[in-house]
Design brief:
Blueprint lengths: L6 E3 L14 E4 L10 E5 L4 H19 L12 H12 L12 H13 L4 H5 L4 E8 L2 E6 L4 E3 L7 H14 L10 E5 L5 E5 L9 E5 L8 H7 L4 H12 L4 E5 L5 H11 L5 E5 L12 E5 L7 H12 L2 E5 L3 H12 L6 E5 L3 H15 L5 H11 L2 E7 L5 E12 L4 E10 L8 E4 L5 H8 L12
Parallel strand pairs: 10-14, 10-15, 11-12, 11-13, 13-14
Antiparallel strand pairs: 1-2, 1-6, 2-3, 4-5, 4-9, 5-6, 7-8, 8-9, 15-16, 16-17, 17-18
Length: 456
């Protein structure tokens, strides 16, 4: 791209809102090949910035109106580049808004019409981990550091966002199909593109870009970071060796990738059948991973996964991102596949368990709620609840054993719980004082446990 827009950085609060006092303007006075956005000054999202957005959108509209219809569709030839360059240089601009330079206006227009718009600089930024667009002019970028920033100048219109998506799909080797609304692509650098190009009536298309993680965690890393205790790490290690089925439930902001990749790294006895739709569950560098796009499984997902896992002797690593995947996962486990690691994003552990119950009941007409609960209890023995702390750190808040089904809910037995004073993230992992039944089973199969670690 010819240039890039400034960006407005922010740190959202626990509810996801961003206060004016947290905003900071990030400018870019470097060449497009450079990939680091530098902080220039603190600021609020003022009326002046909104005026800049409107001014830029008007400039794009004026240049577009002078182009032939369809000139920006498909492959762009040299004549289109030359014509856009000519029109941009001839723009008769009125008084510029404050803090908006003429060169930036011209760069913005050319980048949007000829390149990928504000996505251009982000795609070559090595610190970028994810980009989320909920509306064409609302673009958030998440850095590998965990910082989340709002790009000050988004796209000028929904059609500009759609044009950028179309170009990215074409560059990925699979052009956008006519009428395609749900878009899934892998870009040439491994970045995952997911977009929803809604039908008429949608106020805007939506897009996410997610970079593959190049390095995962280990159980030792998780202990060092305080995500798990040494005792819980040892329990998980033995459970993996004994091919116990594990369910990971993560709340808002929880990094399920971190703990899933650590568990995968500890599974050195077999290949991994990784089923994912929106997130990369294991590092891109892990050679034993056989990746399956969940969106392409279809109704025969369970038989395919069962057969593939049994042929390869593979462990199933599955992100239960939608109800169809939930049913496939449980049918695969019922067919005899063990050593499963499943992840589920939910607001809380109880909400996640209810989601699984509802998904099974909906996927199997006639299946009662108690029967769905019993199916879940019979499929997973150990459940981990992962939370994101206020300072951004990750922690397994609870490790529990599914022991049965009560009259109205699941029967859960705490194994380890992180206990902290009210209002504080500092505390310690505390054992519940009971030796889990899964440990007794593993000990019967010769796994050496020091059961004193389960004492209070």
């Amino acid at each position: 791209p010819a240039g890039t827009s400034p960006a407005l950085g922010s740190s959202p609060d626990a509810a996801g809102r961003t206060s004016s006092s947290q905003m900071r303007l990030i400018g870019r006075e470097r060449s497009p090949e450079e990939t680091t956005l530098s902080t220039t000054r603190e600021t609020a999202l003022t009326a002046g910035l909104i005026e800049q957005r409107r001014f830029l959108a008007s400039a794009v509209e004026r240049v577009t109106a002078s182009l032939d219809p369809g000139a920006l569709d498909g492959e762009l030839d040299s004549r289109v580049f030359a014509r856009v360059e000519q029109l941009v240089n001839q723009l008769d601009l009125p008084k510029l808004p404050e803090d908006l330079e003429l060169a930036k206006v011209r760069d913005y227009v050319k980048t949007e019409l000829l390149g990928h718009g504000p996505l251009g600089a982000l795609l070559v930024d090595k610190s970028m981990l994810a980009v989320t667009i909920s509306s064409y002019d609302q673009i958030f970028v998440t850095r590998r550091s965990g910082d989340r920033q709002l790009v000050a100048h988004g796209f000028s219109s929904d059609s500009a966002l759609r044009r950028a998506v179309s170009r990215l799909c074409r560059e990925a080797g699979r052009p956008l199909e006519r009428g395609e609304e749900k878009v899934e692509r892998r870009l040439t650098d491994g970045t995952r593109l997911s977009a929803l190009l809604g039908p008429p009536g949608f106020t805007s298309s939506m897009l996410t870009l997610r970079r593959p993680r190049v390095r995962g965690s280990s159980l030792e890393d998780l202990v060092r970071k305080g995500t798990v205790s040494a005792g819980l790490s040892k329990l998980l290690s033995y459970c993996l060796r004994g091919r116990v089925n594990l369910l990971l439930v993560g709340g808002p902001g929880a990094d399920l990738f971190g703990i899933a990749s650590a568990l995968c790294a500890a599974c050195d006895d077999a290949s991994l059948m990784v089923v994912e739709e929106y997130e990369d569950l294991v590092p891109a560098e892990l050679p034993r991973a056989i990746r399956v796009n969940a969106a392409q499984l279809g109704p025969q997902g369970a038989p395919f996964l069962t057969h593939a896992c049994k042929i390869q002797g593979a462990r199933l690593i599955i992100d239960m991102a939608n109800s169809g995947l939930v049913l496939s996962a449980f049918e695969t486990i019922s067919a005899g596949v063990d050593g499963v690691v499943a992840t589920l994003s939910a607001a809380s552990l109880s909400h996640g368990m209810w989601r699984l119950t509802a998904a099974l009941a909906a996927g199997r007409p006639g299946l009662s709620v108690p029967a769905a609960r019993a199916w879940i209890t019979g499929s997973f023995e150990l459940v981990l609840e992962l939370v994101r702390l206020s300072d951004g750190r990750q922690r397994v808040q609870r490790a529990l054993e599914l022991v049965g089904v009560g009259e109205d809910d699941f029967l859960l037995q705490d194994i380890f719980t992180f206990v902290s004073p009210p209002g504080s993230d500092k505390g310690e992992f505390v054992a519940a004082g009971t030796v889990p039944r899964v440990v007794e089973r593993l000990m019967a199969h010769g796994y050496p446990f020091d059961t004193s670690m389960f004492k209070q």
